[in-house]
Amino acid sequence: MPVREQARRVAEEAKGFLAVAEGMRLYELSLEGSAWAPCLEIGSYCGKSTVYLGEGCRETGRHPLFTVDHHRGSEEQQPGQAYFDPALYSAELGGTNTLPWLLRNLRRAGLEDWVIPIISESTRLGRFWSPGGLGLLFIDGGHSEEDVLGDYRTWAHQVIRGGYLCVHDVFPDPRDGGQAPYHLVLHARSTGAWEYLGAEESLVVLRRR
Ligand code: MG
Known about the structure:
Layout: H1 5-13, H2 20-36, E1 39-42, H3 48-60, E2 65-69, E3 89-90, E4 95-96, H4 99-108, E5 115-119, H5 122-127, E6 134-139, H6 145-155, E7 159-167, H7 180-190, E8 194-200, E9 203-208
Parallel strand pairs: 1-2, 1-6, 2-5, 6-7
Antiparallel strand pairs: 3-4, 7-9, 8-9
Helix pairs in contact: 1-3, 2-3, 6-7
The protein binds magnesium ion.
The site of magnesium ion has 4 residues, from loops.
């Protein structure tokens, strides 16, 4: 099933760090995962991956995508840091604010009925979330060891049997990028609870046994 032209264009134009092939893999997985239970994305940023995941939910027509982010950007995205983007700066808030970009992209992609944005730290949200099962979990929030492990510990057990755990920015070679997501994948695999389904560029896909 191809992604609608409207959604594909918005996803490709959206600010963010996700290859088209990775986005298409997320789309395909969310077609399946959202048939069983809601999907959850940790790290909405400006909505690039959100559009691919939300499009799968819309297509299947069963369960929505929840996407959680504090929307203040990561440490490297603050003024004066390496990945600061002046277009994301809010003078009123005195820092980065990615929420308007997410909302704009969801509207342009026609996905407001299928994507439910939540403004929060993901672990804080998890403390108040009643377990109901997730068909797909995408971990792409803070990339420190603490953040990545916190997201996994808070949310991974909610993935239903047969459901998907996707982790972005997995770089086995430290020369390619930070190691926390890679360490998380090693840890998850060591538990025996997950079947490794392979990687699409830096996107690793696991399935709950
Ligand atoms: Mg990422």
